[in-house]
Design goal:
By secondary structure, the protein is mainly α. The chain has helices at residues 2-25, 35-40, 42-51, 89-92; strands spanning 30-33, 71-72, 81-84. A 3-stranded mixed β-sheet has the order 1-3-2. A hairpin with an 8-residue loop joins β2 and β3. α1 crosses α3 (42-51).
Length: 93
């Protein structure tokens, strides 16, 4: 139960930050998931996108079934495109 509450809070908080940035930027063209969680946690990406469906985010569940691979994971008529883009953290450091 605690794990579910923690994941729900985590994903809702991230979705809230995306929405806040959308206000500051006067719109959002795309959302990019990267880094350890963004690249590899299929269910986390799904829950974040579900919280953003009201903004027109539409995730393709089959395309979202990817880890560590550069790929668009939104459906073609999503108002906001969603991507997974791997990060080479060692190179950055």
């Amino acid at each position: 139960m605690r794990k579910k509450i923690a994941i729900d809070l985590f994903t809702k908080t991230i979705a809230q930050f995306v929405a806040k940035y959308g206000v500051s930027l006067k719109g959002i063209d795309c959302i990019v998931f990267t880094g350890g969680i963004g690249e590899n946690q299929i269910n986390i990406r799904k829950k974040i996108c579900e919280n953003l469906e009201w903004m027109g985010v539409k995730l393709d569940l089959d395309k979202n079934n990817v880890k560590g691979e550069e790929k668009e994971i939104s459906i073609s008529d999503s108002k906001i495109k969603v991507f997974v883009i791997p990060t080479d953290e060692e190179m950055v450091i």
